[in-house]
Specification:
By secondary structure, the chain is mainly alpha-helical. The protein has a domain of 134 residues: Orthogonal Bundle (Tetracycline Repressor, domain 2). Helices cover 73% and strands 0% of the residues. The longest helix has 28 residues. The termini are far apart.
Length: 201
């Protein structure tokens, strides 16, 4: 079976431009209420042009949501890589919170209600949980975090991340996802950060 042909450069650029517009639109207003015609009108393009993204509304939504989380992950990792702070776990969790902050309540509600898009969020949450485990282990090895079991901490943090993702944390606390990640960062860093040498209990 022949390999699928790559899209021409101009087509790829136009598709990325459309995804950028869809990301901004969905983050601000959600996506459940929009038809393909509505999306095309808001992006000032034709429906046929919008179908460069994907062949149906459902697939357009998933493509835009996947694009959002992919871009967010790239920016998060860039911030971690640039950081000189040895406690890069704190930088990571704060970056996650910053990336989630622009998303409206309607976006999160639509994400929870539409399983294919919510699966993308869940996949990214699992990747983030693995990254937390790596950063805990890194901090322990560097001596900036207390000598804890990184697998246990990573697993515990993963449970909270899953609770944020599936809405149980919001239901219990009223915190949106970005706020919850900031509180998670405070909790984790307060419990793991070594006390300065010579400090007293």
């Amino acid at each position: 079976m022949p390999a699928p042909q790559k899209l021409p450069e101009k087509t790829r650029a136009r598709r990325e431009e459309l995804l950028d517009g869809l990301r901004r639109l969905f983050l601000a207003e959600g996506f459940s209420a929009f038809s393909v015609s509505d999306m095309a009108e808001r992006l000032h393009c034709s429906k046929s042009t919008l179908y460069l993204v994907a062949p149906s509304k459902e697939q357009i939504v998933v493509a835009a949501v996947r694009s959002y989380f992919k871009r967010a992950a790239e920016r998060i990792e860039a911030r971690v890589a640039e950081s000189q702070d040895p406690r890069r776990l704190a930088v990571y969790l704060e970056a996650v919170a910053s990336e989630l902050e622009p998303a409206s309540e309607q976006f999160y509600a639509d994400l929870a209600a539409f399983a294919p898009a919510n699966e993308v969020y869940q996949e990214n949450t699992l990747v983030a949980a693995r990254r937390v485990r790596e950063l805990v282990a890194e901090g322990v090895a560097a001596g900036v975090l207390r000598p804890v079991d990184a697998a246990f901490v990573g697993s515990a943090v993963a449970q909270i991340m899953t609770g944020i993702q599936n809405g149980t944390i919001k239901a219990a606390t009223g915190l949106d996802d970005a706020e919850a990640y900031r509180h998670l960062a405070d909790l984790v860093m307060a419990s793991l950060t070594r006390e300065p040498t010579g400090s007293h209990a």
